[in-house]
Amino acid sequence: MIKLIATDIDGTIFHRGKINPTVIQALKEAQDQGLKITLATGRNARSIQKILDQMGMGLNYSDIPIIGQNGAEVFTIQPNGDMKEEYNHFFTKEETDLLFKLANKHHVQIFSYAYNDKLSYVNKKWHPFVWALSHNSKRKPLKYDFVHPLKSPISKLIVSGSRRQMQKFREEVSNYNYPIFAFSYVQDARQNIEIVPKGVNKSEGLKFLAKKFNLQPEEVAYFGDGENDLEAIKWAGLGFAMGNAHDHIKKAADKVAPSVQENGVAVEINRLLEAQKNTPTK
């Protein structure tokens, strides 16, 4: 019996700037039937709030934590709109020193997400990639300082460059065992990637929620489409890959849902709710 549904945002329920009302209705129906609903995303709290506003579901996220930054943070949103942290994972200064040095070596650009949501450490302040993310995130770019302590610790790096540069950079970073994912907002992982602290992925957030609510993996359903969803799809008792996911994501899933364009999350939630109606409770 599924008791918790967690879903990725971009490419899973969010497409071309909006969430289809059919998906919102299915999530609301699941909530009305007593299931817990949450989000697991590469986004940070500020941009997640915009998604919640669009959903307009009245979900009580002061009780049910949201998984952000690919599992680097878990938080609740209080009735007044404030964020209450459940946990955070950050890079050490030594780790960010290494990663920024590798970025400079391979001539790629870094935009970071610091704990202070008004700033970002970058290696090239005036690059168009940095300007675009700074504008979208409302973060002030600061040139990374290798000498002095950071004003705010970093939980995620977004890196961009040419395909050849990014291939070499990604290969070298992989040698240090940092989790690397395709950037949530784009499809080309060869040119845009996200890096999070060691041991961080969305499945760790799901494990935190399962422990909080005394749930087993088989009581959790997860929907996702990207590299950053892979571990969560494999951990959940019922892991769905979207029809628009890459083949290796689909192979890891228990089921393949219709694509985001076909409102696949709504289709599968409605099937799940119908099946559970017809399943006797113990």
From TrEMBL:
The UniProt GO MF terms for this protein read: magnesium ion binding; phosphatase activity
**InterPro entries (UniProt xref):** Cof, HAD-like_sf, HAD-SF_hydro_IIB, HAD_sf
For this entry, the protein name equals: HAD superfamily hydrolase
Gene Ontology annotations for the cellular component aspect, listed alphabetically: cytosol
Query: From which organism does this entry originate?
Result: Entomoplasma freundtii
What would be the name of the gene that encodes this protein? Answer: had
Q: So which domain of life are we looking at?
A: Bacteria
NCBIfam families the record matches: Cof-subfamily, HAD-SF-IIB
Tell me the keywords, alphabetical order: Hydrolase
Read off the SUPFAM superfamilies from this record. HAD-like
